[in-house]
Amino acid sequence: QVQLVESGGGLVQAGGSLRLSCAASGLTFSRYAMGWFRQTPGKEREFVAAVSWRGDNTYYADSVKGRFTISRDNAKNTVYLQMNSLKPEDTAVYYCAADMYGSSTRLRDYDFWGRGTQVTVSS
Known about the structure:
Layout: E1 3-7, E2 10-13, E3 18-25, E4 33-39, E5 46-51, E6 58-60, E7 68-73, E8 78-83, E9 92-99, E10 112-113, E11 117-122
Parallel strand pairs: 2-11
Antiparallel strand pairs: 1-3, 3-8, 4-5, 4-9, 5-6, 7-8, 9-10, 9-11
């Protein structure tokens, strides 16, 4: 079975940092593009960042460019999201996802999803 497990969420003050991790199992990790999405109550789940199969290409939502960095370690079957200069509007449940057909910013293109990890940024 395919499983994606996020970790690293928590409560931080504005301006602080968090590093999210997503550990994947049950799939050939290096064949999947990986993405991070986030969702708050009453809003659609939105794209945050994605990284290609080899980690050589990355993509970011405009709202996080310059603050967040996505990376992957294929030897560890893990994708990361380093979040710096956090803002209260970054508060959300963050989800890790895997796309077998290539990097995408669209939710519908992702095949597997984690259960999410809560990130809360206080003022």
